[in-house]
Design brief:
alpha+beta; 11-stranded mixed beta sheet; globular; single chain; 16 helices
Length: 526
């Protein structure tokens, strides 16, 4: 989620070993401009989009997604898992004839090593497995068996998380904190050649087991800010510009695309933005107050003024890319329902003479969230006649994330980048709380996210959908979950983002996948 400044120079001439036998791209290389600087590309420690954009092309997981869909398909596995009747044991057949970038043969032992390393090294995303997995073991040269602590229907989707990729047992070690942030040895269609603060180079892997990339390699040119990314694309210094632009820059590039021959590609994103309400802090401990805030939110206004129509309203914690999406906040509260907001506030005891003061906190690096908070402040002052006084408060990022779980803030503007493509990942990390009572959550996901919401019914619903193996049964439970959120209002969904990529004339195969983002292996120069 962090964007870190670094060098803005154009990629230097090739100084690393050229690819041998890579794909049908001849001598073509693709240069991708981005402002996202990876902290690490070790799959057991990377939990940021910047690193994932790179490792997705370097690695294979047991499962991936069919492009353009949320449908799982085998990658290093040869079939979907065989699940025991109690939902606790997953038996997975493993592909043969695969080698790592260092020549080490891939087998079930190597896959088990990779998953155990993910758990035991204790990296940032390790809880994705450690919280649910009891054991991982090779039960044959071409089979692994994973035992879970509790039944979890979405587990195959977890195995498609980029950090679950296979890494060479010869190059990596198991042990707390034993990470290789600037190295990568996997089985993917590309192998890493260079990793520096401003340039990451990868070449097509000539021994790749699957379809070879249609280009010879990828150069990630990491730029210091959106303005440099914008100018680098306009001048042709990069072939592709992807993440992140300001809305004004996106609009400018879109308008110039036809005359310049650029490709401007837009896709619905699975990234969402919420307002998290701290139900333990006054006055948000009053249901009427939370419902009043939900009523006053005008999503179309935010889309127009903040996003320049480069997003869409969100009326559930789930994005509408899921079949189980229900626009519950639209039916319950609408948009800019000022009269309902006033009535609820009056019931809670708030008037012009006794206004509700609401602190809305966001990380200071986020211009978008600053604009959301400012728009809400102006809207409340004008439409609700000062009965609600929104007080925007930027925080330094480290302070923001540290204080979020301590309950220091009333309301938080939070972006959410999902870990895996299942509705559970939009619900459980926000609303689950195994320890709490009517006064709020003491320890759990909702506490860590800053809402401190506790509901015995919600805990039971989350457990039920995790145990249900039948998709229709799960969808019904998710419907109940969404209804409960709209009633209790611990979180108010605001926006579902759109994703943009810009490509120079003549590039073929450029597309945005909602989950895999930018499939670089299928891009070639015409």
């Amino acid at each position: 989620m962090l964007i870190v400044s670094c060098n803005t120079s154009r990629p230097p001439a090739q100084t690393t070993t050229p690819a041998t036998g890579g794909g049908g791209g001849g001598n073509s290389r693709i240069t991708v401009g981005t402002t996202l600087r990876p902290r690490t590309i070790d799959p057991a420690d990377n939990y940021e989009l910047a690193g994932t954009n790179i490792t997705t092309s370097l690695c294979d997981r047991l499962y991936t997604y069919k492009l353009g869909t949320g449908e799982l398909e085998p990658q290093l596995a040869t079939a979907l898992p065989k699940v025991s009747q109690d939902g606790l044991t997953y038996t997975i057949p493993i592909r043969t004839g695969v080698v790592f970038h260092d020549g080490t043969p891939f087998n079930a032992e190597a896959m088990a090593f990779s998953l155990n390393r993910f758990i035991k090294n204790g990296g940032k995303p390790s809880a994705l497995l450690s919280d649910v997995v009891s054991s991982v073991a090779a039960t044959g040269n071409d089979q692994i068996t994973i035992k879970l602590k509790n039944s979890f229907a979405a587990f195959p989707s977890v195995l498609a998380f980029p950090g679950m990729c296979a890494v060479s047992p010869k190059a990596y070690q198991i042990g707390s904190g034993k990470f290789l942030p600037t190295k990568f040895v996997g089985t993917g269609p590309y192998q890493l050649r260079q990793f520096t603060p401003n340039l990451v180079r990868m070449d097509a892997f000539d021994k790749y087991w699957g379809a070879k990339p249609t280009n010879q390699g990828i150069d990630f040119q990491i730029l210091s800010n959106a303005a440099n990314l914008y100018n680098s694309f306009r001048t042709g210094a990069v072939d592709i510009a992807y993440q992140t632009f300001d809305p004004q820059q996106v609009e400018s590039l879109k308008q110039q695309a036809t005359s310049k021959g650029w490709q401007a590609i837009e896709e619905k994103s699975n990234t969402v933005t919420h307002m998290i309400l701290n139900v333990k802090q006054k006055p948000l401990d009053q249901l009427e107050v939370r419902q009043a805030i939900a009523s006053m939110i005008d999503r179309p206004l935010l889309i127009q003024r903040v996003y320049q129509n480069q997003a869409q309203p969100l009326y559930s914690m789930l994005p509408d890319t899921f079949d189980s999406y229900k626009p519950v906040f639209q039916s319950a509260y609408g948009d800019g329902n000022v009269e309902k907001a006033k009535a609820l506030l009056a019931k809670a005891g708030y008037t012009k003479e006794n206004p509700l003061k609401l602190q809305v906190v966001y990380p200071g690096y986020s211009l978008i969230r600053e604009q959301i908070a400012g728009t809400l402040r102006g809207y409340a002052a004008q439409k609700l006649e000062g009965i609600i006084q929104i007080q925007p408060q930027p925080e330094e990022s480290a302070t923001f994330f540290a204080n979020q779980a301590k309950g220091a803030y009333q309301a938080i503007l939070q972006d959410w980048y999902p870990d895996f493509g299942d509705p559970d990942n939009y619900i459980q990390p926000f609303l689950s709380c195994p320890k709490g009572d009517a006064s709020g959550c003491e320890n759990g996901a909702s506490q860590s996210q800053g809402s401190f919401y506790y509901s015995d019914r919600m805990n039971k619903l989350i457990a039920q959908q995790r145990q249900a193996q039948d998709p229709q049964a799960r969808a019904k439970i998710f419907g109940e979950i969404q209804d409960a959120i709209a009633q209790d209002v611990p979180i108010i969904p605001l926006v579902q983002n759109k994703d943009y990529v810009f490509a120079q004339k003549g590039l073929q195969g450029v597309q945005i996948d909602p989950i895999l983002k930018l499939p670089l292996w299928q891009i070639k120069k015409g």
